[in-house]
Amino acid sequence: MYLKQLIISNFKNYGETSLECSSKLNCFTGPNGAGKTNILDAVYYLSYCKSGFNATDQQNIRHENDFFAIHGIFNSGENPDDKVSCVLKRGSKKQFSINKKEYQRLADHIGKFPLVMISPYDQDLINNGSEVRRKYFDSVIAQFDAVYLDNLIQYNRALAQRNTLLKRFADTGNFQEEALEIWNEQLVQYGVTLNEKRRVFAGEFIPVLQKFYTHVSGGNEEVSVEYISQLNDSSPELLLQESVMKDRVLKYTTTGIHKDDYAFRMNGHAVKKYGSQGQQKSFYIAAKLAQFEYTQAKKGFKPILLLDDIFDKLDDTRVSAIVKLVADNMFGQVFITDTQSERIERLVSESNAEYLHYVVDNASVKKNGFTETPHS
């Protein structure tokens, strides 16, 4: 599975741009702020139905325009010309379609064209709170398990309804336990299933993570991911019963799988506290590469891999090791951004892999010195 052509209109700093894509390596080089990351984000949209960077879709519409559009033509194996489209008009609902058939639920698209992105923002997985790690691993599992995604959506809906009731009870002073019980049952039903799938995933993920950490870092540290959940020590029914008074005071649900976390360990210690800057970067890069291999094993084909500006502060030896790794046949289509054109050109040339090299400057994209398309 790979992206054959990318067409973007009024997306971020781009007017009209069309790019042909190599089925192997696609390199975009240029100064910071030129628009390299925006191209990768457009590819990300076609997989996840959203930006990898902006939480609000409207922010991605180019200044002084009324809409943005992203179109991609994929060779999915089953169909050599699957056309995926995302269109957003100001003040309107996002429209997402495949082969001109609009999705009624965006969740139905997730996993059709799996993708893994590595960027400097992945440092947040280590430094930030549990919500970032939980959402990340939810997105990983959802790429190959549609039932998991549906259960997660149902759980979050029940959680929102329960929280609304708790606020209403506090405002009115009228507590109705039977009304709360309806949503308790759903939280228990979906929570147990999600907890079990998260536990199994974490156990299977660790050896893959270790393999890639050793490859990327060259070190001999032992790394792991520990799945932490309140459900590991108690039943969800009991947790909800015991926390009801606290929930009423705070006006939200304080127990359940929405409080889960994943602890990153290195030699038994927290990576955030004891890992050096280089070790932390090696850890999150290894985690994303492990995600790639794990997803491939589950889906039966290779996801697309995006490497966005990850070579900053890495020495040439590590950069060379990563490029050689992703150029290998175990990986499929790869998109790379970097500020150093000569370095990328040299490394991908040495890899003997098929590649295209685009130079990006102020939303102008050129291949071999020639502009691909006119820009407005």
List the helices and strands and how they pair.
Elements (H helix, E strand, L loop, with lengths): L1 E8 L6 E5 L4 E5 L6 H13 L18 E9 L6 E8 L5 E4 L2 E2 L12 E4 L5 H4 L2 H13 L3 H27 L4 H41 L5 E6 L7 H7 L1 H7 L10 E6 L2 E2 H4 L2 H23 L4 E5 L7 H12 L6 E5 L2 H11 L3 E7 L2 E4 L2 E2 L5
Helix pairs in contact: 3-4, 4-5, 5-9
Keywords:
Glutathione S-transferase Yfyf (Class Pi), Chain A, domain 2, 376 residues, alpha+beta, seven-stranded mixed sheet, Rossmann fold, disordered C terminus, single chain, 11 helices
| End-to-end C-alpha gap | 31 Å
Choose one word for the global shape: globular
Work out the radius of gyration: 22 Å
Question: What about the largest sheet?
Answer: 7 strands, mixed
Widest sheet: strand order?
8-12-13-3-14-15-16
What CATH calls the topology of the largest domain is: Rossmann fold
Assign a percent range to the helix content.
40-55%
What is the β-strand count? 16
Q: What amount of the residues lies in strands?
A: 15-25%
CATH homology superfamily name of the largest domain: P-loop containing nucleotide triphosphate hydrolases
State the domain count: 2
Give the number of helices. 11
> How are helices and strands ordered from N to C?
EEEHEEEEEHHHHEHHEEHHEHEHEEE
Structural class: alpha+beta
Q: What is the CATH domain class of the largest domain?
A: Alpha Beta
Mean pLDDT value? 91
The low-pLDDT segments are 369-376
